[in-house]
Amino acid sequence: MNVVITGYFNDQSKQRVIQSFPEDWKIQIVEPQQIDEFIGEADVLIPEHIEVNESLLNKAHHLKFVQTGAGFDNVDIEACSNRKIWVSNAAGVNANAVAEHILALILNYYKNISYLDRFMKNREDETKLEYVGGELFGKTIGTIGFGAIGSRVAELAKAFNMKVLAYDTNKNIQSDDVELVDLDTLIKNSDVITINIFLDDSTRNLVDKSFLNKMKNDALLVNTARGPLVCEDDLIKALKDNVIGGACLDVFTEEPLSLDNGLRNLGNVVLTPHTAGMPDGTKFHETRYRFFVQNILRLQNNEMPLNNLNQI
User: Is residue 274 annotated as a catalytic residue, yes or no?
Assistant: First the structure.
C-alpha cells in the first residue's frame, strides 16, 4: 500500500506519523508543491494544503482512496467518483480534541492567561498590572453547527453553568439541555459564538460585516472550523473598531498565516496555528491516524470505507 501525505511536517512529526501505519506500507510525506512527483504511484492520498481536482487526478494513475480530516472542501468529490476513487473524511474522530481546544481558547481569553503569562515572564511590575477579565458562569454560548463538535462543546459549556444556544440546518436535532434557535437569535443573544460547520458555497464568508454588527459589542467569536467561513477583512475592522469584544482563531483564510496579517497585531485576539485537532503534538493526532489506518484496511479488504462521501 502506497500512501502519500501532503503537508508541512517537522522530522519528529513525520516519524510519529509513519509509525502509525503498518511497517510494510510505503508512507511518503511530501510538501504540497511536491505532489506532482508522487501522486502517480499513490494508492491512497491524505491531502493537506492542496486541491484534489481534475488536474491532479489526471496524474493519479493508481489512486483508489482520498482520506481527509474533518473538512473536505479541497476535494472534488464528483471528479473522484467519476474515476471510481473513494473519498472519506474523519468527521467526529477529533471532535473531543477540537471541543477541548475551543474551551481552552475561551478560558484563555476570559482569564487573560496569555497576557498574564507574558507579564510574569517579562518580570514586569505587578503594581502596574492592567487587565479586564470575566467568568463563564451564567454566560450564553452559541454553537453554529450541532454535530459531533458542537454537541461536545455544549456538554463542556454546561459544566461551567453556561446557557447553550445552537443553530443547525438539520432540523431533526433534539436536545434537552440546549435551546435550538434560528441563526439571528443565536448571533444577537450569545456572549460567545463558536463556529462548528463545514465550509461550502453556502457557508463561505458566513461571518461578515452584517453578522458581526448583530453580535453583542463585548461578544467573543471562536473559529476552529475553516478560515474562509469568516470574512477576515470584516473581522479585523470589527475588532479594531470594538464592534465585538474579541476573537479566538485557529484557522485562517490563508494558511500558514502570513507574518504581516493584521490579526497578529490585535490585542483582543487569541491565535493558534490550526492545531485544535492535533492534541498529541505538532501535526499529529494519534486517534485520527488510527482511524486512517483502519479505514485504509477496509479498502484493502474490499469493504466500504467509513465516513464515505461518495459511492463507487
Answer: yes
